[in-house]
Amino acid sequence: AQKVTQAQTEISVVEKEDVTLDCVYETRDTTYYLFWYKQPPSGELVFLIRRNSFDEQNEISGRYSWNFQKSTSSFNFTITASQVVDSAVYFCALSEEKTSGSRLTFGEGTQLTVNP
Amino acid sequence: SQTIHQWPATLVQPVGSPLSLECTVEGTSNPNLYWYRQAAGRGLQLLFYSVGIGQISSEVPQNLSASRPQDRQFILSSKKLLLSDSGFYLCAWTPPAREETQYFGPGTRLLVL
User: Fold this and answer.
1) Which residues of B touch A97 (CB under 8 A)?
2) What is the pLDDT of residue A22?
3) What is the rounded distance in angstroms from the CA atom of residue A101 to the CA atom of residue B78?
4) Which of A93, B36, B61, B97 could form a disulfide with A104 if both were Cys (CB 3.0 to 4.6 A apart)?
C-alpha cells in the first residue's frame, strides 16, 4: 500500500526565514509521481509541482525549490525568504500507475504560518 | 483554458436529509473526475473517481454515492446525511491520459447538524 508521511504538523517562522517541509513516501511501484499542493485559507488546492520517479533532478521555481531523493524516499519542499502570503497548508501526494485513472495518496499536510 | 466549478460553495443540512453536490469542468473532453473529502484535521480522502460517463469507482464504502450523467459533470449524492458526512468536499479533474496532474475545484463546505 502507498503511504505519504508529512511528519511536521505545524511550522511557524518569521518572514524572510527559509523553511523546509518534509515528505517521505512508501510505494512498491517502480513508476510513480510525486506532487506538492498548497491549500490557502480559501480552501482550494493549488498545484505546485509534479515529479516522476525517473527524474531526480532538483527543481527551483522562484523562491520555491524541491529536493527529490529516491534513495531516502523523500521529496522535500523549501521556501526561501518566506512571506506572509506563503501561510497555508501544504500537501505532499503520491500517485500510482494504473490502467485508468490516477489516484492520489495524500499526506496529512503541514500547516505553515509565516509571521510578519 | 480549462476551469472546474463546484456548487454550492457552502451548505448546512440536517441529519437525515438528502444531498446533491455538483462538479462541472469546462474546456476539456472526457476528463477523469474525482471526489475527495477533507474532514477536520486536513487529510484528504478519495471517495470516487470516474473515467467516463456512467463509470464510477468507489474507494470507500459509505453513505455517499456518485454519478456522472454527462461527460463533464460529476455529482455526489446521499439519501440520508449523517453527522460524520460534514467536511470539505473537493472535486478534481485530469485529462484522460494516464498519470496527469489533478486540478482541484474551489470545494463545497458541508455542515450536517
Assistant:
1) 98-99
2) 98
3) 24
4) A93
CB B103 within 8 A of CB A35: no
List, for residues B31-68, the tens digit of each pLDDT value. 999 999 998 777 899 999 998 999 998 888 678 999 99
Distance CA B107, CA A78 (A): 27
B34/B8 Cα distance (integer angstroms): 17
Dig out the grid coordinates for A25 from the structure.
513516501
> What residues of chain A lie within 8 A of the CB of B105, using their CB?
44
More confident residue, B111 or B43: B111
Which three three-digit cell numbers place residue B18? 438528502
Residues of B with CB under 8 A from a CB of A: 32, 34, 41-44, 46, 49, 51, 57, 59, 88, 90, 92, 94, 98-107, 109
User: Cβ contacts (< 8 Å) between A33 and chain B: which residues?
Assistant: 99
Distances (CA, A) of B110 to A63, A93, B15, B76: 35, 24, 12, 12
Q: How do residues A27-83 score in pLDDT, each as one tens digit?
A: 988 888 999 999 999 899 999 999 988 888 888 889 999 999 999 999 999 999 999
- Per-residue burial over B62-75, b if 16 or more Cβ lie within 10 Å, else e, is eebebbbeeebebb
